[in-house]
Inverse folding.
């Protein structure tokens, strides 16, 4: 009878560990994005497709629509040309940075806050939208503000979003449940998996606009400046993005887009750029 | 229980069918390639070629003992490290093919091993070469025995395509989640629709296999 | 890679705990439910057989993710609160029990039907014959494939990541998206899964080889 070598399983395990530890996390998008985009007359944006007002899949025609999308289109037209081919790749808070670093997308415009941690791995444009973190709860909920998030309270957030890091600081006793995207998070809230959902007010107003049984409470408790993210080392591209944002603001295009998406949102006061 | 009329309006059904199309094409491509690669790898491992079979064996053991979700992350986020950049659909195809090839390779190796080794000896002593004996004597018998396990694995492949929602692949499950995410009154009807659609695809695979099984047995 | 591991050790360990917990819970209950449905499928009663068949075909042909999401988002709306961990464990149990039912049924049916007849004609009831004669033999045949089901169970438990079930994959997602060290994090997660699954897998191969080897010697 063959003797059972009880250590044998360690061999593939070691092989796996050695193989993967040699994998770096370097950015592979070394090419110059701006000249490539101009040469191919195309640009690829990472966007949300589950976030009302910012980037939401319209089931009737398969198009993603929202504030982020319109800004991305306008920026693309200004830096590359009116007939540029614009591709939108749906991302989640979890997938967007790896996809940018890997070069699947040229830039991210996906309700993404410019934070010091993220600035270590990507570069940000000027702020294009000022959001702030807030809470969404069922109408009549005892939770009125972050102060009510006590021990035993379950707060729903989204994996990879800045808001889950913030909520742990302001409400360290609450339990945070992180789902994969905003659609899943809001579904979970509606199914009673948590007592409140936390993320940026703009996103929350989008949810409550369609579901009046859920309300945004307590005002904002952080500042979340949304910016366009590009890879490090893409200075020419980033400069052009910033120029486009500035000129949009000067000629009123920005205001038009802002009014289109946030003009009728009740209770939304401290939104876009002044 | 939910708004069935609203959930089953044409734009939603069409959206689900678009997702179904991605699920079916992802499954079909992965099935074809994983059966091919699975057979090759299974044979290589069975044949006990020095070094090569050992390495193939390690690779099979590593990959088939990891969750498919991890393989999906490795292909989508990791392959660009070695210069291969894939969009969500090709990344899912590669991940499914790699994972299912390894699962199939083990089934196929086991199937060949289960055919009595005496048969190989008998065939060889009757003057057949190793390749001839394998092709004409061993493999047909092994294949017949393996069919239920292979089909079961292929059904798992179809079901597992739903995990690709994590990389925002617009397949059936993801489209279902998008619809009920926008209106929770559609939740129950959409879950029923998802269940029925997946069931039809998977069950038709079992029906085809039963037909094949009978044909081979006859 | 090593610093990611040491910096986030509590999260990795918590994940390992929840993954093992969900897998073991689901194994226990799916063994019970699976055996019940295996017995239903071979029951002389036609209606019992049909019920058994429908159960198995249903859960074998519907994705685990669909079942799990159903328990996470639909069932709580009917007034039955279920956490992500509970929904995930129930999904895993139901899904796995269908495979276990098939494995156990095949095991029982591979025992020579003559044994059942012989036991019955010696005055045993159907239940007694099953309990003392057929099942003990069937168990030996079913243990290696059951081991494979358990390995699948551990791998499938990663579905908990979709419902905030605190398992390894969930913790991995959180660590990867807060450290931005995606590949290193998932490599560690991979090693942790392999630490559970590889010994099981090699142990099963060994058992399988030993028992089938023993059978061959008996035949010779």
């Amino acid at each position: 009878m063959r003797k059972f070598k009880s250590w044998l399983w360690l061999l593939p395990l070691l092989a796996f560990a050695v193989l993967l530890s040699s994998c770096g996390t370097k950015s592979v998008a070394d090419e110059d994005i701006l000249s490539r985009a101009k040469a191919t007359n195309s640009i690829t944006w990472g966007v949300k497709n589950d976030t009302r007002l910012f980037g939401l899949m319209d089931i009737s025609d398969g198009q993603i629509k929202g504030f982020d999308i319109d800004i991305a289109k306008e920026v693309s037209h200004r830096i590359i040309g009116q007939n540029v081919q614009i591709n939108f790749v749906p991302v989640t808070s979890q997938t967007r940075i790896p996809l940018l670093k890997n070069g699947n997308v040229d830039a991210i415009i996906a309700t993404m806050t410019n934070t010091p941690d993220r600035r270590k791995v990507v570069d940000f444009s000027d702020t294009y939208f000022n959001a702030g973190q807030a809470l969404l709860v069922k109408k009549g909920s005892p939770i009125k503000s972050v102060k009510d998030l006590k021990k035993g309270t379950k707060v729903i957030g989204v994996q990879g979003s800045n808001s889950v890091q913030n909520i742990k600081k302001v409400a360290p006793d609450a339990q945070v449940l992180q789902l994969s995207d905003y659609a899943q998070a809001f579904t979970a809230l509606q199914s009673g998996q948590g007592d409140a959902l936390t993320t940026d007010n703009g996103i929350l107003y989008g949810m409550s606009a369609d579901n009046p049984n859920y309300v945004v409470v307590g005002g904002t408790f952080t500042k979340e400046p949304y910016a366009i993210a590009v890879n490090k080392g893409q200075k020419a591209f980033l400069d052009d993005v910033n120029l486009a944002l500035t000129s949009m603001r000067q000629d009123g295009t920005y205001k038009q887009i802002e009014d289109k998406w946030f003009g009728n949102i009740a209770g939304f006061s401290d939104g876009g750029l002044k | 229980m939910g708004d069935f009329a609203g959930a089953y309006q044409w734009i939603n059904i069409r959206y689900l069918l678009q997702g179904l199309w991605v699920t079916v094409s992802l499954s079909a491509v992965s099935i074809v390639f994983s059966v091919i690669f699975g057979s090759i790898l299974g044979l290589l491992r069975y044949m006990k070629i020095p070094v090569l079979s050992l390495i193939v064996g390690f690779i099979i053991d590593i990959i088939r003992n990891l969750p498919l979700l991890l393989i999906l992350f490795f292909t989508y986020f990791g392959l660009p490290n070695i210069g291969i950049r894939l969009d969500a659909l090709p990344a899912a195809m590669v991940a499914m093919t790699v994972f299912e090839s390894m699962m199939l390779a083990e089934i196929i190796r086991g199937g060949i091993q289960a055919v009595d080794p005496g048969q190989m000896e008998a065939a060889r002593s009757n003057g057949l070469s190793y390749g001839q004996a394998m092709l004409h004597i061993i493999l047909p018998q092994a294949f017949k025995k393996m069919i239920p396990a292979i089909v079961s694995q292929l059904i798992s492949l179809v079901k597992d395509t739903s995990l690709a929602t994590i990389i925002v692949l617009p397949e059936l499950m993801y489209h279902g989640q998008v619809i009920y995410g926008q209106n929770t009154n559609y939740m129950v009807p959409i879950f029923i629709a998802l269940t029925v659609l997946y069931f039809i695809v998977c069950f038709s695979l079992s029906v085809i296999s039963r037909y094949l099984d009978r044909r081979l047995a006859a | 890679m090593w610093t990611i591991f040491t910096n986030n050790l509590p999260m990795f360990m918590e994940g390992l705990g929840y993954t093992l917990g969900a897998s073991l819970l689901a194994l226990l209950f799916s063994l019970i439910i699976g055996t019940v449905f295996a017995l239903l499928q071979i029951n002389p009663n036609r209606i019992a057989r049909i019920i058994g068949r429908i159960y198995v075909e249903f859960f074998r042909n519907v994705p685990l993710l669909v079942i799990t999401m159903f328990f996470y988002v639909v069932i709580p709306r009917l007034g039955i609160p279920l956490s992500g961990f509970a929904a995930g464990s129930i999904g895993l149990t139901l899904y796995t029990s269908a495979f276990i039912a098939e494995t156990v049924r095949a095991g029982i049916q591979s025992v020579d039907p003559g044994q059942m007849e012989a036991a019955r004609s010696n005055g045993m009831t159907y239940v007694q014959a099953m309990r003392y004669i057929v099942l003990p033999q069937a168990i030996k045949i079913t243990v290696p494939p059951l081991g494979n089901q358990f390995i699948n169970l551990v791998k499938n438990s990663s579905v908990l990541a979709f419902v905030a079930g605190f398992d390894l994959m969930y913790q991995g997602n959180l660590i990867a998206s807060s450290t931005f060290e995606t590949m290193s994090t998932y490599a560690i997660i991979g090693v942790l899964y392999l630490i559970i699954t590889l010994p099981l897998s090699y142990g099963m191969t060994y058992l399988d080889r030993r028992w089938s080897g023993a059978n061959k010697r008996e035949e010779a």
About this structure: Chain B is about 80% helix and 0% strand.
